Structure formats: C-alpha cells, structure tokens
Amino acid sequence: MSSSRFDLVIINGVVATAADCGSYCIGIKDGKIAALAQAFSPEEIGDAEVLDAEGAYVTPGGIDAHVHIAQDLTTGPGVASGATCADDFDTGSRSAVAGGTTTMVAFAMQTKEDPSLLQVVEDYHKRASDTGCWIDWSYHIIISRVDKDTIRPELDALVKDWGITSLKCFTTYDALRLSDHDLMWLMLEARRLGVTTMMHAESGDIIAFLTEKLEERGMTAPSFHGQSRLPIAEGEATTRAIVLAELVQTPVLFVHVSAASAADAIRAAQSRGLPIFAETCPQYLHLTHADLERFHGPLCFENSKMLCSPPPGLNDDDQEHLWTGLRNGTFTIYSSDHCPFSFKYVPNGCPGIETRLPLLFNYGLMTGRITPEKFVELTSTGAAKLYGMYPKKGALLPGLSDADITVWYPEGKLKPFKLTNEHLHHDVDYTPYEGMEFANWPRYTILRGKIMWKEGKLLGKAGDGLYMKRGESQLAKSPVGMKKDPRRVPLWLHDE
Ligand SMILES: *[C@@H]1O[C@H](CO)[C@@H](O)[C@H](O)[C@H]1NC(C)=O
Q: Which residues are in the Amidohydrolase-related domain (predicted)?
C-alpha cells in the first residue's frame, strides 16, 4: 500500500449512479471509494495509478442476484435430464467479471431429500471455497420442504451466521413446489426474521395438466415447451402469491417475470401500496416464441437453446410491455437467471451472466429506452438495496462503498461486433444471443480497487472474490405504516 491519498484514480468518466449522472473523477484507496470530485490536483493523484475513461460511462459494478452455478442436477428440476451444471464458481464468476459484474448471489438449494438447510449451505459453500470466485458472492436459500421444527432454528442461524436474508420458493416443479399452506407458513417465518421471500410463480397444476395433454398427442418437441407453460399459468400463480403475501403482510419478490399479465398483477399490487417487487431477465426482452420455433424439426434440437421457464413471450408486444415496466418502476431488478446447462441435454434455462449488462447497455441505454440512472438501478443498486448489500455494494459513496466499478468504452471506440459463443468466458457450449450486434462492452471491471478485466483480458484470479454476509433488505419491509382493517387482515397472526 502506498502512502498517497489514492491507489487508483479514474479520470474523464461520465459517472452514473442510480441517483445522478455527471463528469467526475473517482479516487480509490484500500479497495474503497475514497472521493468523487470534478478534478484531482497532481498532488492529490501522487503516485496513484491513473485510468483514463476517455469520456465513457463509469457505473457501479453489476450485481447479478439470480444465478445458478455449481448446482447438483441429480435432484431438483434438472433431474432425469442427464444434464450437469457446466459452470462452477470459478468459470461462472470469470464470465461475470468479463461482462462487468462484480457481485453475484447464487442459490443453495434444499431438495426433498435434504432435511437440513444448514447442511445444504455448508456443502454448497465448500464448492465455492474449493474453486474460489472472481467476484464477491452470497447465497439465497431455496426451500423445498417445510419441516417446521427444523426450519425455524435453522433460518435463524442462516440469518445470523451466514447473512442469508432471502429465501426462495416455488409453485411449480414436483421436486420443489410447496402448497399454499406451506407458502404462507414460510412467509410468516420470513416476516418474523426480516427475510425477503422470492417466488417462482407458475401454476404447477396448469403446467402438469397441459403437459399431460401434449404428451397424449405426441407433442413433445422442445418448441411445445411454450405451449405447456402459457402466460396464464404465470399470471395465475403470481396473483395467488400476491393474495398470500397480503394475507401474511410480508414482502415478496417475483423472480424472472415474463408475462404481461403477471407484470400487470404486480403493478396493481404495488399501486395499492403492498411491498411487492419484481425481477425480469434479458431472455424476456430479447427472445420470443418465434425463437423457440425457428429451428424446429424432428431431429433438430437447436431451439432447445432458447428454452427456459417461464418461456419467452409470444411476440414483441410482450417484450415492449416488460420494457415499459423497466422504465416505470414495476421492476426493481434485472438479473440473468444464468443456467449453465449444455444444450445437448435440452436445458431448462439459458446462460447469460456475461451478456446481462452489455445487453441492457446496448439495447436499453444506448437506444434511449432507459436512462443511465435507470440502467444502474436495474443492474446494481436495486439488488443491493433489495438484498441488504447497500451501500457497500451498488453505490459509489465515498468512505462507504467498495470500489466495484465498470468502465465502458467511449462512443465509437469499440468496433461493433456480432456476438459468438467464443467471445464468452463461461463453460457453456452456446449463447442464446449468438449473432446479436454489440457496439459497447465493459472495458474495465474493477473489484474492490483491483482491475480484474481490461480490454478483453482477464487480470485477476478465482480467489479474489470474497463471501459476503448480507443484512436486512432496505426495500422490502413489511407494510407496518399502512392503516389496516383487522376484519380483512389477520393482524393477530403477528402477536407473539
Ligand atoms: C407500468 O408497467 C407495467 C408493466 O410492467 C404496466 O402494467 C403498467 O400499466 C405501467 N404503468 C403505467 C402508469 O404506465
């Protein structure tokens, strides 16, 4: 460590945060943001390393709050597909940092066979420790069986010892889905602990019914995936889960929202003042049913590259609806739902941890669909606040924030190129965005003051990332201030 005021300074940047955007220099010391100023004097810069942004956007490092990595697919929804998870903590986070992301939250998944949540987290953490990670990371816990006596003390321990302050549950997949009764029980526990409930909302019964009928008719090719998971299935489960959340009076975040009907139900709940939050993902802004059908043929599984659940929308209208929601505040976060499953196994999910930021930058910010401030809120600050990482992450506040920074290319500097899978740093054998054009990409990715990615080259190593305990959500609070009618809401539920 040098004795000068800064270790690294970034000059000539257009610094965008969720709050504002302007020309600032950033001074970094000991891995933290130390100062923001119009300019630094040569004395202030001293012998610090100087990085010239050349007028490009400089944004807080991306936070990907929804990634599947190093998951065991012999259980859970991947079971029987024969698939394995192509990315471990090393390759997945390497891909992340090459795409401007400096923090990720991955899923420790309890299966029906695992009674102990703590054991699940310890086992999963061992996988992360074995390979190391290129970026900072944390876990959400997926709960697939509700053993009330075990879960209560374990959830307490997860919050206190691990800083895991979010749990995810499912309304579909036989291996994971919970009954409404169990969902309410969990929501009440989550409320007691100040933990955020994440919901995968698709009606398991509608999907099972349609799948059975499709199978009876021999309609089993990958393109029929969309037919088995119609938007109405997502709309129904979303509406139902909002009812349960209102009954229990607890915040819920809906993951990977794809259907306009689900977005509308969420918006309506928000308008009534309920703490309902939503996430959407790049696949729902850039893919449609047409992509599922494009390659359809009896022996051709090319279209399995576009499979995910819920599936992409029917047409461009659905995409426009989601863009509106990104602009108008319906969505708090934009995550990848990175599912690194090789396509020969007909994967359920798409890889996207590296393309997430560049897609929204090129197709959202550069096209004027969203402002730079909105870009930062959706890719970083929203997740930091929702999942209890703010302002250490998701901000550039002197003295408070880690120096996690993405520096983009100045306009016109990067030759526009068509993406191919060879550009990417994951271990997956395809990208659903093959052939899409990009005119910008992260030029530098900085993790706690260390340059990890520079003009197409990786500089750091797996092991530079740190596990992070998270605190209580700064956004998702139970709606204590709202006036409630005890004849409509069972307020006695919360008496100890
Ligand atoms: C905001 O976007 C959502 C879709 O996500 C939509 O349902 C709603 O009508 C929009 N609200 C306004 C006021 O435009």
A: 57-452
